Amino acid sequence: MPYQHLLVAVDFSDSSRRALLRALAIARALQADLSVVHVLELAVNPILEDTAVIGLPGVWEQDLNHSLLAETETKFLAWQREVFSESPFEVACKCYLEAGPVVPTLLHLIELHEVDCLVLGFQSHSALHALFGGSGPALWAQTPCDVLRVK
Predict the structure, then answer these.
(1) Would you say the pTM of this structure is higher than 0.90?
(2) SS3 of 75, please?
(3) How far apart are alpha carbons 76 and 82 in whole angstroms?
(4) For residue 122, what is the enclosing H or E element?
(5) Residues 47-83: pLDDT tens digits?
(6) Residue 78: phi, psi to the nearest 5?
(7) 64 vs 128, which has greater pLDDT?
(8) Which of 31, 37, 47, 54 has the fewest Cβ atoms surrounding its Cβ within 10 A?
(9) Helix, strand, coil percent values for the chain (each to nearest 5)
(10) Residue 89 belongs to some domain of the structure
(11) What is the DSSP letter of 57?
(12) What is the CATH number of the domain that holds 10?
């Protein structure tokens, strides 16, 4: 059965650009829904970080996080415009900027939006590799859908 909904997780790298361009082509060919997400892990006060380890929530640095969210939103919008302008395909796409831990956030979005293919750019030096380097296999094992890694 062809894919109905693709989710592309991006980190603004060249490999993410290639993944999004590939997903645009696939979504157009299959007439599938397409969503793009960037997940921003927010700063936690390092003095109180140990409380998160013992099961208590950490304390977020409010000013820093609001600044990071605003800066990342601007960067995400500019990056989207740039990548979408490179594609010959016009595909309706929903874009999300989420804040939180990457793997649980992606798993939540996959379930919430009934995603049947997660698309990731992969390059050994990309931020996605850094984020998923140790947890990549755990993400792939927990993902209830296909995972397409684009080089």
Answers:
(1) no
(2) helix
(3) 10
(4) none
(5) 555 555 554 454 555 666 778 888 999 999 999 999 9
(6) -65, -40
(7) 64
(8) 54
(9) 50, 20, 30
(10) yes
(11) P
(12) 3.40.50.620
State pLDDT tens for residues 95-123. 999 988 888 999 999 999 999 999 998 76
Give the Cα separation of 99 and 90 in Å (integer).
28
Q: Please list the residues that pair with 130 across neighbouring strands.
A: none
Phi, psi of 39, deg, nearest 5:
-105, 125
Structure tokens at 125: 């030096």
Dihedral angle computed from the Cα positions of residues 113, 114, 119 and 125, in that order, rounded to the nearest 10 degrees = 60
Whether residue 131 lies inside any domain: the answer is no
Residue type, 122: F
How many angstroms separate the CA atoms of 86 and 78, rounded?
13
Helix axes 14-30, 62-86, angle to 10 degrees: 60
